[in-house]
Amino acid sequence: MKKLIPIISVLIATTSLVAQNIAIPHLQKNGNATQLIVEGKPFLVLGGELHNSSTSGAAYMGPIWEQMKSKNLNTVIAPVYWELLEPQQGNFDYSLVDSMVYGARNANLHLVILWFGSWKNGYSMYAPGWVKSNTEKYTRAKNKNGESYQMLSALGSNAMKADANAFKMLMTHIRSIDEKYQTVITVQMENEMGLFYGPREYSDEASKAFNGKVPDDLMKYMLSNKGKLQPEIDSAWKANGYKGSGSWEEVFGKSSVSDNKNWQALSYLPEELFTSYHYAKYVGQVAAAGKEAYPIPMYVNAWIKQPGFGSPGRYPAGGPVPHTLDIWRSEAPAIDFISPDIYTTMNVAQYTMEQYHRAGNPLFVPEFKPGIQSANMAFWAYGQHDAICFSLFGIDESKPADDPITKTYAAIAQVQDLILSNQGKGTMAGIYLDSTNTHQSFKLNGYSIRATITGTSALELAYNPNAKKVMAAGGIIIATVPDEFIIVGTDFSLTFTPLKPDASRPLLDVEYTDEGNFVNGKWTATRRLNGDEGTGGGDYGFGFGNNKAALMRFQKPPNGDYSIVKFKIYRYK
Ligand code: DGJ
Questions:
Q1: Which ligand 1 atom is the nearest neighbour of the CA of 343?
Q2: What is the DSSP code (8-state) at residue 546?
Q3: 50 CA to centre of ligand 1 in angstroms
Q4: CA angle 330, 334, 339 (to 5 degrees)
Q5: Which of 207, 379, 384, 386 could crosslink 423 through cysteines, CB 3.0-4.6 Å?
């Protein structure tokens, strides 16, 4: 009888989500935010993307799943390769897919699948040999001299149908092994698609289409969304008289090229929108085929427009950059949102995330360059932009102890429920500071708050002359009730000044600063920070001087972890 008990509890624990009637992973609005719902609850992706070839070997991946868990990820972003899924046309091999799904599930991780189908970084390197070698059937994009590029043509319906068929088979299989468990939570369609070398394809068919009319489906979408379109498209259309029909240049204006220094300006706009139209239509049909089998969220990612890569063709033309969002919405309704891959300076990174976080387009960052600045920027993305996902690329490159993201995710994991319940409400802010961005100011919970990066203190240096220089500081601040905040971070201080001073109690002080942890969502204070460790005095210097503002400063835990504090201000006269 005794033996039966564990068996029964395993059965209870594995009662399927399908049997419980829990919806498959999907997106849901919450206030101004869009959330990813997994196993019936909002889910924050603490992600990392594997190197391109890692999941092509099940044995190679063996130890990596646990390594990912040790980095405190909850989700691994990993490719499935068309060439290995369908090595001969119509013969499907799911063994690698199975190894990924089971490997992730056994390590208690979720998966975002990258569908390396027709395009990866513009090129068609992951299409199977039977596609790549048959250029008659699976046509290539062509340059102005009629020469083929390596890339499949976005106008090629045969390749699109073959890709859609393979992708549908993949999603059918994933549903069959995973619907019960929801290990796979989202799918990225293709990878950084788009055309290099120029803004559009130049085959006879492509040139004829470009010189012809803007297709009816796009025109209809624009007319019915007039006034609600992305500002870049709307202003180009408006400047050309809001025409209800016409060629790409008649509707969006003559092509112009900005000098390369002005990387934000739009070059080759009509060609770019034309190219986006064809990529979106192609990929939209592939995604729709997959969704017929298993309609979980699907997105596309971009090689972004950035300094040095300011014009389409320098970055893959037709890829999902923010000013083309309406083309994606019109032509690829099966695509739920567009995403940026970020390998740039932190200032451009912040600008890029702002650009992608647009009405109805949540921020989901599948690739961010690794490093200490990035590990701090993660806080800003989640706290400031309600990011569904932040993820570093090449996450299997480094050991957990060497990767600064390990500590970031350990801290964020503790407050993830709080983050999720504050998304879209204006009750949360993200902080990012470094040597060129030493201050950040914002308003929250009735206060004007100024964050300042802090250096290594004299006391710290006295004990440890080799103490590391502070390279970057990131954090999240959440307003709980009036005058109280939960703050996650280290290496920055905060000054709180009331937006509306209370004439009857004009002075401010700290009621308490408690350092602690969240365990299973429940707050436990571990220390009360006061005296030397508070903000009134100690090694920090006396803070009582300005009693019209309240001050918060972290105590650095000796192991280099981020701190979590509960901080309350009171007023007096
Ligand atoms: C961006 C791509 O999307 C990734 O697959 C990878 O190639 C990285 N670049 C490499 O930096």
A1: 11
A2: -
A3: 10
A4: 85
A5: 386
- Residue of the CA atom closest to atom 2 of ligand 1: 121
pLDDT, one tens digit for every residue, the chain (573 residues): 344 444 444 444 456 788 788 999 999 999 999 999 999 999 999 999 999 999 999 999 999 999 999 999 999 999 999 999 999 999 999 999 999 999 999 999 999 999 999 999 999 999 999 999 999 999 999 999 999 999 999 999 999 999 999 999 999 999 999 999 999 999 999 999 999 999 999 999 999 999 999 999 999 999 999 999 999 999 999 999 999 999 999 999 999 988 767 999 999 999 999 999 999 999 999 999 999 999 999 999 999 999 999 999 999 999 999 999 999 999 999 999 999 999 999 999 999 999 999 999 999 999 999 999 999 999 999 999 999 999 999 999 999 999 999 999 999 999 999 999 999 999 999 999 999 999 999 999 999 999 999 988 777 788 888 787 889 999 999 999 999 999 999 999 999 999 998 999 999 989 999 999 999 889 999 999 998 888 754 444 455 677 889 999 999 887 889 999 999 999 999
Mutate to test the pocket of ligand 1, among 49, 123, 191, 395 (most ligand atoms within 8 A of CB): 191
C-alpha span between 374 and 383 (Å, rounded) = 14
Beta strands in 31-176 (DSSP E): 33-38, 41-43, 45-49, 75-81, 110-120, 140-142, 148-152
3-state SS, 461-484, equals HHHCCCCCCCCEEEEEEEECCCCE
Residue 396, ligand 1, Cβ within 6 A: no
541 three-class SS: coil
What type of residue is 388?
A: I
Q: How far is CA 329 from CA 16, 335, 361, in A?
A: 34, 8, 10
Report the separation in Å between the CA atom of 186 and the middle of ligand 1, taken as the mean of its atom positions: 19
Biggest CA–CA distance in the chain, Å, is: 83
Q: How far apart are the C-alpha atoms of 416 and 514, rounded to whole Å?
A: 19
Separation of alpha carbons 276 and 193, rounded Å:
10
* CA–CA gap between residue 24 and residue 294 (Å, rounded): 9
Q: Is 344 in the pocket of ligand 1 (CB under 6 A)?
A: no
Q: Are 22 and 39 in contact (CB under 8 A)?
A: yes
- Rounded CA separation 125/118 (Å): 8
Count H helices and E strands in the chain, helices first: 17, 23
Closest CA to 112 of 14, 25, 177, 30: 25
Close Cβ partners of 265 (under 8 Å, ≥ 6 residues apart) = 258, 310
**Per DSSP, what are the bridge partners of residue 338?**
300
